[in-house]
Amino acid sequence: MTDRLLSGHASCPGCAVALAVRLVLQALPARTVLVVPPSCIALLMGPLPLASTTLPVFQTAFETTAAAAAGLARAYRARGEEATVVCLAGDGGTYDIGLQALSGAAERNEDFLYVCFDNEAYQNTGNQKSGATPWGARTTSTPAGKTTRKKDIVEILAAHQIPYAATASPAHPEDLAQKIARALTHRGTRFLLLTCPCVPGWGIPDDASLHTVRAAVEARVVPLYEVEDGTRYHITHWPAGIPVAEYLRTQARYAHLVDFEIEAIQAEVDRRWDALLDRVARSRRLAAEPRQPLVSAT
Predict the structure, then answer these.
(1) H-type helices in the chain, by residue range?
(2) Domains of the chain by range and CATH?
(3) How far apart are CA 172 and CA 216, in angstroms?
(4) Alpha carbons 230 and 184: distance in angstroms, whole number
(5) 3-state SS of the chain: helix, strand, coil percent to 5?
(6) Whose C-alpha in 115, 160, 249, 250 is 20 to 30 A from the C-alpha of 204?
(7) Residues 196 and 14 sit within 8 Å (Cβ to Cβ)
């Protein structure tokens, strides 16, 4: 693989987003253009006209990532040129500020790969809660812990019946590379959710990012799976099912939780895992009935 992320970028020590961006860029074809909204990724990419990647970067407004990517993809097609358009966005610009543009693009099945680097808050501006922040997590805007659930962004995108959506982790690089390769075999809107711990925002040591996300995966907080056409579910890593408490207790953002609150989180994680297993079971029943898409990529 070609390493397309250069040294000297501005990420924090131990940043999982920087590692995840490096892994994603390695898996992309040479003829790729990146669309980046304001985020930790934008800081990592560097101030214009400089860049910490060898790929071209189009920096856009917070709410317009998917719209800009759709326009670029259409422009390349109009010129008769082959190019892979890839969005690199954070959870704030995906779950919240950019959701309208992303939903519209997904409904039209615009031809790009959208990668969301989810560190579960607006970390670039000092750890304010986002739609990706889990219940109970402390942020500067939820000092007693968030009182609402995290949005299920993959299910929101799957409900649009896009060709491909998946979850991934920088601690599982082979799984991540395989999912990018799978996404690149499709045309239309493709979505990849990458969970990336934030060292200062989550309150973990700067050498603990990968250990933390591995624990999230093994506790079923972050299941690794993929969805095709919004109906075919496939689990790509079967977790050990460790107690959720082993994941939560390593992070300062959950230090205030008491036992019954951790038990409530465990129950919610178990419910979501069972729901995922139900979707996988339904997928197997549909496997013998291939469904042709109603529309092709716009």
Answers:
(1) 16-27, 40-45, 65-78, 99-108, 153-158, 173-184, 199-202, 209-218, 244-248, 259-286
(2) 16-286 (3.40.50.970)
(3) 12
(4) 17
(5) 40, 15, 45
(6) 115
(7) no
In angstroms, what is the C-alpha Rg of the chain? 18
d(CA 235, CA 216): 15
23: nearest Cα among 39, 36, 5, 43? 5
Dihedral angle over CA of 171, 168, 195, 134, nearest 10: -130
To which residue do tokens 């920096």 refer?
A: 59
Tokens of residue 173, six digits: 């690089």
CA distances from 94 to 37, 79, 97, 103, 197 (A): 10, 29, 6, 10, 17
pTM above 0.70, yes or no: yes
DSSP class of residue 95 equals I
